[in-house]
């Protein structure tokens, strides 16, 4: 290779390096930003997960401590001081407070609290249904028979998770209204349902016997 060719090659390499350095100066910040974004995103996810776990543990500890209080009034006050956090956790907290209010014979307050959870569209559906079911079962003294009937009928729709429990409550309402034949027929359908649990089948059978009926063979 001649000296001229060698010189040309050296100049070419210098030009390439200059272009590379210029490109790095011009666009290198993008690569740095991407690296920071990836690293920062991972760190943020780890921080968020750790924060959520810490909040959940604090929530659980607060509930356990509140439930250790000596009487309903103290437990209610302690539960009301617990930070609810996410909507699902807050719904559970409200249902626990309602349970304590019911134990203290404050049925009206308990039903109102449960109904508020049931009406909150931001709460997950399953919690809303549980709250509505509890409000209806707790509300015998404060909710009319017809309102309870219509409420349980809405929960007894096919595909709903509390369907058979709502059917059981409808049978009890029919007994309360003096329609024992309808109650026995409904209880028999519960017993024959493929999704019935052993406990519910037993309760339905006992009710049929108490009403003077015959338990269908399962």
TrEMBL record:
UniProt-listed Pfam families: TPR_21 (PF09976)
Key words, A-Z: Membrane, Transmembrane, Transmembrane helix
Domain Ancillary SecYEG translocon subunit/Cell division coordinator CpoB TPR: 29-132
InterPro entries per record: SecYEG/CpoB_TPR
Transmembrane annotation, as ranges: 27-44
Protein's name according to its UniProt entry: Ancillary SecYEG translocon subunit/Cell division coordinator CpoB TPR domain-containing protein
Native source organism of the sequence: Ponticoccus alexandrii
